[in-house]
Design a protein that fits this description.
The chain is mainly beta and 681 residues long. The chain is 6% helix and 51% strand. The protein has three helices and 56 strands. The radius of gyration is 28 Å and the shape is globular. It starts with a helix and ends with a helix.
Length: 681
């Protein structure tokens, strides 16, 4: 084995001489990240002040990091809070922490030696917003309404007033000596010139309930969420002229991804973080706000902007990522609105076929993604839930109307040529050979479509099915409440159950799921909390070998070569690198405006069926790829990766089995060298 290592070192010298050292680059995956630090806990909020990042850890306290060099952040101190800290801010060397047990004030002029100055105990469980203004701390929570504290003398914080009558507190925003207070009953404007004696000026008209808001001069920037029929939820950034504080005038708005957890107005840019990304809106013209940036950042909890607006510090649940936000970027290249909820998409050649629920079947010309347009459509009986394109036919899973088959050879509107009414609700369809496999809430329906104009029942496997994947004579089925079921369907009239696996998050209510297979592994997502990777090399004994947890409702899953894409309501589309051994690694993500129900990726272009009337979204996802030779995970190929390979190779660690054959020999060294020489994508 030593001789192999000598050979590797000779190749290394050759690579050094030729200057082959690569650093990760990309298109949609180049999300501007310039650094970060992982504190190993749940980072919940972050504020940057004077070259230090103050990171609130849910349930623990606040950690202090020197971020003068964002690429090399260093922890310098920690303050342990009383219990479950939920908000913090730093002002003039003083840290204010609000937890469910009250308020703590800390001197952090020397972050390495924090000193507790004062405590005010006050139990609060439903904290919604805290705001520090001129020595007065305003706190809104569901239990108390609005509470006001005097913190001008940090050593002796005191309560000024609790507005008991406002016991349905939802949010507030204080500015100058005025305060907008939001309850579930409406909006009020209060005069706070004497915080101990607020005076109601009047009720505020024409306001929706807001998720977050900021005021700059006479402009109010507000995030509003509205619900409409068909479960359509629209979230917008609204800009109001508040010259008349009691009658704000809406002057501009634009749609944004749903439910931001925090918003910051910096110059002419509004940045909003939610569970799936950081959205940036140009408000240089308040009457015409425009989304100009959209970074996929999984599990965003809180953020702050520092460095003159050039750096964004994002608490992402496990640590803090530092992003260059000076030049907002988005990967979107085109979009086509649809009549209803685009639910599934399949791309063949220069056409995308979209199942648009009540909007039927749409045919979209995507030969020029930036100028994509609808070139044909057909109404389906009931909902168009899922579809598959096979040569000149499109097979549609039509909900309560079963399977419907359309001829699309003419290039214009699809023509219905046949159909088959399944027992209940058709969720999914795939076609293999001359059999259409329909995932129905009653059973897996197998239908002979050798003559598309006369589909004939061929067999069934009873059990409510959410989705199906077929390879040869084996069907991999996601059964409602029962998980993965593997069937031998060589004889459709007599399907045989040969293997089962039940993910822990599967429940009886699951009715949407996605399933794909590559090699010996099946990949499943659904209305659960993770991407599951199941080894089906032995179909009689499927076993879980990999899992990626996330908090989302997921519907679609698609392979583009060895790149795996997953769609979600809140996290948009996420790309995972697949190593062929059951391992998956998050590479990049993108957050559409209205979530994502399904995705088909062809040639580096992602075609996304957006939810809630969003239509078809087209995104350039490039080839992010996984830099498999980057064993240290720092995005750079250098001697440290070579050292890591040599160490793993000597220990016969699977990390060094680059050929994937289970042995450790020259072929692994050769494969590593090829990957190393190719550089990071």
């Amino acid at each position: 084995m030593r001789s192999y290592a000598v050979v590797l070192l000779w190749f290394v010298f050759g690579l050094c001489a030729s200057g082959v050292w690569a650093q990760g680059e990309g298109d949609w995956c180049d999300d501007g990240m310039v650094g970060g630090f992982d504190d190993g806990r749940e980072a919940y909020h972050v504020q940057v002040e004077g070259g230090f990042a103050y990171v609130l850890e849910f349930g623990e306290g606040v950690r202090f990091f020197d971020v003068s060099d964002p690429m090399d952040a260093v922890e310098v101190g920690f303050f342990e809070a009383m219990e479950r800290p939920m908000w913090h801010t730093v002002e003039a060397g003083t840290l204010y922490v609000v937890s469910i047990l009250g308020i703590e004030i800390v001197d952090v002029s020397d972050p390495s030696s924090p000193v507790l100055l004062g405590v005010y105990e006050d139990f609060r469980l439903g904290l919604r917003r805290a705001q520090l203004l001129d020595g007065v701390l305003y706190v809104t929570d569901f239990e108390h309404g609005l509470s006001i504290y005097d913190v001008s003398e940090p050593g002796v914080p005191s309560s000024i007033l609790v507005l008991d009558g406002l016991n349905t507190g939802r949010d507030h925003i204080a500015f100058g000596d005025r305060l907008y207070f939001q309850s579930w009953d409406g909006m009020e404007l209060l005069d706070m010139s004497d915080p101990g004696n607020p005076v109601k000026i009047g009720d505020v008209s024409d306001f929706w309930l807001w998720d977050d808001s900021e005021i700059r001069s006479d402009l109010l920037y507000q995030v509003e969420t509205r619900s409409f029929p068909w479960s359509v939820v629209v979230t917008e950034l609204c800009v109001y002229d508040i010259t008349d504080l009691l009658s704000p005038v809406l002057i501009g708005s634009c749609e944004i991804p749903v439910h931001p957890v925090e918003m910051i107005v910096s110059g002419s840019m509004v940045s909003m973080l939610n569970d799936g990304g950081l959205v940036q809106v140009d408000v240089s013209d308040p009457a015409d706000p425009v989304v100009v940036g959209n970074l996929g950042i999984a599990y965003g909890k809180g953020f702050d902007i520092a460095g003159g607006g050039g750096l964004g510090f994002v608490a992402d649940g496990s640590g803090v990522g530092v992003y260059d936000v000076s030049v907002p970027t988005t990967a979107e290249v085109g979009s086509v609105p649809t009549a209803d909820r685009a639910w599934s998409v399949d791309v063949e050649g220069s056409r995308a076929f979209v199942a648009d629920m009540a909007g039927g079947l749409l045919v979209v010309d995507v030969s020029d993604p930036g100028g994509a347009s609808v070139v044909g459509s057909a109404f389906t009986d009931g909902f168009a839930v899922d579809l598959r394109v096979v040569e000149s036919e499109v097979y549609v899973a039509g909900g309560y109307n079963g399977l419907q088959i359309f001829d699309v050879s003419g290039g214009g509107d699809p023509v219905m040529v046949g159909g088959f009414d399944t027992p209940r609700y058709a969720n999914d369809v795939v076609v293999s050979g001359q059999i259409a496999y329909v995932a129905d809430e009653h059973s897996l329906q197998m239908i002979d479509v050798g003559d598309p104009s006369n589909p004939v029942f061929a067999g069934e496997f009873v059990g409510g099915v959410a989705s199906v994947f077929v390879e040869g004579t084996t069907a991999y089925v996601v059964e409602i409440g029962a998980g993965l079921r593997i069937l031998d369907v060589a004889d459709p009239a007599n399907p045989v159950l040969i293997g089962s696996y039940l993910p822990t998050w599967f429940g009886a209510g699951l009715n949407t799921a996605g399933i794909e297979k590559a090699g010996d592994y099946v990949y499943i997502v659904g209305s659960g909390s993770s991407l599951q990777v199941i080894d089906v090399g032995d179909t009689s004994l499927p076993a879980l070998v990999g899992e990626v947890e996330f908090l989302d409702l997921n519907h679609g899953i698609s392979f583009d070569g060895d790149r795996l894409f997953v769609t979600g309501d809140r996290l948009g589309i996420q790309e995972y690198g697949v190593d062929g051994l059951g391992g998956v690694e998050l590479v990049a993500s993108y957050l559409p405006t209205r979530g994502a129900n399904d995705v088909d990726v062809v040639g580096g272009i992602a075609y996304i069926a957006e939810g809630s009337g969003g239509g078809l979204l087209i995104v350039d996802v490039g080839d992010c790829g996984v830099c498999v030779a980057d064993l240290t995970g720092d995005g750079v190929l250098d001697f440290f990766d070579i050292s890591a390979f040599l160490t793993a190779f000597g220990l016969q660690d699977p990390l060094a089995d680059f050929s994937g054959d289970g042995s450790f020999d020259f072929f692994d060294i050769s494969a590593f060298l090829v990957s190393f020489g190719a550089g990071c994508p």
